[in-house]
Amino acid sequence: MDIKKYRVKPNKNVDLEKFSTKKDDSYSKKEVKEEILPQNLEKMFEFQEKLYAENKKGILVVLQAMDAAGKDSLVKKVFTALNPAGCKVTSFKQPSTEELDHDYLWRITKATPAYGEVGIFNRSHYEDVLVTRVHNLVNKKNDDDFWDKRFEDINAFEKYLDNNGIKVVKFFLHVSKDEQKERLLDRINLEEKHWKFAASDILERENWDDYHRAYEDMLEHTSTDYAPWYVVPADNKWYTRLVVSEVMLDLFKQLDPHTPKLSEKEESQLEKWKKVLMEQDEKNENL
Ligand code: ATP
Ligand code: MG
């Protein structure tokens, strides 16, 4: 797959209208669900085992989207393929009073992945240039550069992570307004989906254009070589999963993790330790 077409080029104007929300017709749903995706997930698992064993690098996956774009189901269908021992999902909700009493990256830095781990942010520090901006939640004290400074902070933070072995990759799940409406309607019409219903999602939909403007500005300023944004079509969930798995595999290949080898000294002592292990039971048997 040509994943480059979904990657946002650094410092380029972004018009979300120009990014597709739809699947690419060269793939069939059946082929993806039955063959390509299961194979990709298996490969992701194998790479993650090595990343975990190597314990030198980590990956931070950032998920952002409008409501009902499928963040949760992406986590469920793609990232559960990973070994939970080396994977951590953090969902960022409205900040607590304690969190609001700190700088906005405070709660974020505490949740970054350890070496060997894949960390997934379901919403993230980007809420602080999205919902915060759309709803005017901070006092900007007439500072015209307020949002530019936040973009600068975020880029510096992600560069810092990159310099320290944590690779950042970011996905904006791009759903159309019509498809969002269908999914929100399902949450009303289908009893088994009632638990997902939130009246706030319907009210928030009225701010669709403002959100899109905030997203475009964010994508323009924070897609970098070291922490790129991908605008992933989200009207067909199976296609979203395919694109995300392809990007993850590309990243794993770049990181090229290796299971550590024993040192020559350790290797030369293996026979000795085998003997010790075997003799332990013989001793017990002779008692
Ligand atoms: P789902 O609805 O699929 O369970 P969700 O991510 O929408 O998942 P909710 O609990 O519905 O989870 O919403 C979380 C809310 O928290 C969102 O409306 C989001 O904008 C808000 N939020 C997250 N971070 C911040 C922030 N820094 N400042 C203000 N609001 C935030
Ligand atoms: Mg929600």
Q: Quick check: average pLDDT?
A: 95
The string of secondary-structure elements, in order, is: HEHEHHEHHEHHHEHHH
Shape by Cα distribution: globular
Instruction: Work out the strand percent.
Output: 5-15%
Number of strands: 5
Rg on CA atoms, Å: 23 Å
Count up the domains: 1
Q: Mind telling me the CATH superfamily name?
A: P-loop containing nucleotide triphosphate hydrolases
Number of helices: 12
Please describe the biggest sheet, giving its number of strands, its sense, and whether it closes into a barrel: 5 strands, parallel
Q: What is the name of the CATH class?
A: Alpha Beta
Say what the CATH topology is: Rossmann fold
Low-confidence stretches: none
Named once each, the bound ligands are:
adenosine-5'-triphosphate, magnesium ion
Main β-sheet, spatial strand arrangement:
2-3-1-4-5
Give the distance, in angstroms, between the N- and C-terminal Cα atoms: 65 Å
Structural class designation: alpha/beta
Protein architecture, described:
It comes from Finegoldia magna (strain ATCC 29328 / DSM 20472 / WAL 2508) (Peptostreptococcus magnus). It holds the Pfam family PPK2. It is a single chain. This protein has 287 residues and is an alpha/beta fold. The chain has a single domain (4-262), classed as Rossmann fold (3-Layer(aba) Sandwich). The protein has 12 helices and 5 strands. It has helices at 29-54, 71-77, 97-100, 106-109, 131-134, 146-163, 177-189, 199-204, 208-222, 237-255, 264-268, 270-286, and strands at residues 58-65, 87-91, 118-122, 166-174, 229-233. It starts with 28 loop residues before the first helix and ends with a helix. The model has no long low-confidence stretch (mean pLDDT 95). The site of magnesium ion (MG) has 3 residues, from loops.
